[in-house]
Amino acid sequence: MAEAVNHRERILGSIRHALVSSLPAEGIAAEYAAIRRDYVRAGRKGREELIEFFVDRLVDYDAGVYRLSVAEIPGKIAEVLAERGKAGLAVPEGVPKEWLPAGFAFGETQGLDVYELDRAEGVLTGCTVAIAETGTLVLQNAAAQGPRILSLVPDYHLCVVFAEQIVESVPEAFGRLEATSGLPTTFISGPSATADIEMTRIKGVHGPRFLDVLIVG
């Protein structure tokens, strides 16, 4: 982790040096200040309309979507895992124990390498924020979410999203992320998929082929 941060700082340092060499600091600040910011930066939808908007986007991406209350979290997780034929999932550090239903195996992901994660039946995480407009889940290297590898290797991802974590637009999401902008961050819009030159859609190229989202509240 420390090595990755060092590489990142080295690259960003090189970019800053190149910019400073070509343009004085006050010039950079002036150019940045001159960027137009008259785009929509705040949501206009009511809470229920916002959630339905988010659900619509997720369904369009072929994600499974379930709405529930806080008390229903363990029961719904058990129901979804049974429907998926899963005996259990890997969970990052910080996932609340009260989320985990009895009768399933939930193993910690800490210390697992890419091969061990690939053999897991899937992963259960929370998220930092969700964007209704794009149907996007935003995960950071934080409690109940874990490192980026968890959203890239396992074939199945079950994500718990609380209603208050859902915002309408991308600018709103970046506002929420400002305080934790230094953390590794992953944006997930539906199950992993891509298309070749003939537009043949293939799932699971760089992440899970199957995504289920529990919307709580």
The DSSP helix count reads 6
Q: Share of helix among residues?
A: 25-40%
Computed Rg: 19 Å
- Counting helices, strands and paired strands, the structural category is alpha/beta
Largest sheet, if any?
4 strands, parallel
CATH topology of the largest domain: Rossmann fold
Overall, the morphology is: globular
H and E order: HHHEHEEHEEEEEHEEEE
Oligomer: single chain
User: How many E-type strands?
Assistant: 12
How far apart the termini lie comes to: 34 Å
Pick out the low-confidence regions. Answer: none
Query: In the residues, how many domains can be counted?
Result: 2
Biggest sheet strand order reads 1-12-7-4
CATH class of the largest domain: Alpha Beta
Just name the CATH architecture of the largest domain. Answer: 3-Layer(aba) Sandwich
Short characterization:
This protein is α/β, with parallel strands linked by helices and 217 residues long.
